[in-house]
TrEMBL record:
Keywords: DNA-binding, Phosphoprotein, Transcription, Transcription regulation. The modification 4-aspartylphosphate is found at residue 54. One of its GO terms (molecular function) is DNA binding. This is DNA-binding response regulator, LuxR family. PROSITE patterns: HTH_LUXR_1, HTH_LUXR_2, RESPONSE_REGULATORY. One of its GO terms (biological process) is phosphorelay signal transduction system. Residues 148-213 form the HTH luxR-type domain. Residues 3-121 form the Response regulatory domain. InterPro entries: CheY-like_superfamily, NreC/VraR/RcsB-like_REC, Sig_transdc_resp-reg_receiver, Tscrpt_reg_LuxR_C, WalR-like. It comes from Euzebya pacifica. Pfam families: GerE, Response_reg.
Amino acid sequence: MIRVLLVDDQALMRAGFRMILDAEDDVEVVGEAGDGVEAVEQARRLRPDVVLMDVRMPRMDGVEATRRLAGPDVTTPVNVLVLTTFDLDEYVYGALRAGACGFLLKDAPPEDLVHAIRVCAAGDALIAPAVTKRLITEFAQRPRVAEPAGDATRLTTREQEVLQLMARGLSNAEIAGQLVVSDTTVKTHVGRVLSKLGLRDRVQAVVYAYEHRLVVPGD
């Protein structure tokens, strides 16, 4: 069973999420929280497989709660899937930098929500295509850097190609189709990219690619 903690300041929203998830045989809602403070407390106590996290909440917002549960300084991070009606760049970027394993908008279909929870519970990461487009728009407005910084020079040409395609929101299967290689080969390349760059998952890889200008919108 995938154990899920629901975090939203609106009881009606939590009830709706619970109804959707209760219909799934492999998902169990183990708790609810109405703000970031409660979310951190319950997540540390219950250790759910996935925390479904709202962004705008009283006392502590979802970005800060995510940072405390899944940030780079957390020894045993929790999988946090951020779900919000606000597709603003500041929230998208803040949540991804805070360590979220995924980001969906609340108008996503129920099946997309369930799929995202399963992906995050499996230790993978997911960014909704709409969110990827917002990231592209955000970084397109920033001054271009001539050369990428950091450890990107350690990547092979093929690994850089895989990273660039990940940053554009392609799945492993889509990358395999574009590069005409097997899914297993793509998974190997993804693993090497994460290892060489010291990144935890493909969400961090997407942020890294745009921060270091390895992907330039419009190319």
